[in-house]
Design goal:
about 0% helix; about 50 residues; mainly beta; single chain; two-stranded antiparallel ribbon
């Protein structure tokens, strides 16, 4: 996911995330949990996150 703007996206939601469960965020090396309702997270300006 990428934010190519100068706006901080607080509580950004991806409603149709590929699947619920445990994911690894590759850029910042953190584990995230995704629910059935989608995934909500903060995305700072001019940044990207890669979920695998």
């Amino acid at each position: 996911m990428g934010n190519f703007s100068d706006t901080y996206l607080s509580g950004y939601c991806i409603p149709n995330f590929p699947g619920a469960g445990t994911w690894h965020e590759w850029m910042y090396n953190k584990i995230v949990e995704v629910g059935e309702e989608g995934f909500k997270f903060d995305l700072p300006e001019w940044s990207a996150q890669v979920f695998v």
